[in-house]
Amino acid sequence: MRVDLFDFDLPQDLIALRPARPRDSARLLLAQGQKSFSDKTVSNLPQILREGDVLVFNDTRVIPAQ
């Protein structure tokens, strides 16, 4: 795998510096198929999930590097 393929410019104003408040207002990218993407929030999950869906959690922590 080439890690240089993951390099991209991210505008400073799009970097989260603290958790969303309220927490369920955190942004969520809904990907349906290869070309269908839409912006949602975590509070939309009950309407989005269907029986048989798989939900993957990322519980990694970010180190304070600034």
Walk me through this protein's architecture.
The chain has about 70 residues and is mainly beta. It contains one helix and two strands. The protein has one helix at about 45-50, and strands spanning about 25-30, 35-40. It has a two-stranded antiparallel sheet. The longest helix has 4 residues, at about 45-50. The two termini are about 25 Å apart.
Q: Could you give a short description of this structure?
A:
It contains one helix and two strands. It has one helix at residues 45-48; strands at 27-32, 36-41.
> If helices are DSSP runs of H or I spanning 4 or more residues, what is the number of helices?
1
Spatial strand sequence of the major β-sheet: 1-2
The low-confidence parts are none
Radius of gyration: 15 Å
Helix/strand-derived category reads mainly beta
Shape descriptor reads extended
CA-to-CA gap between the ends? Answer: 27 Å
Strand content: 15-25%
The helix/strand series, from N terminus to C terminus, equals EEH
- What is the residue-mean pLDDT, rounded to a whole number? 87
Count the beta strands: 2
Main sheet: strands, sense, barrel = 2 strands, antiparallel
Tell me the helix content: under 10%
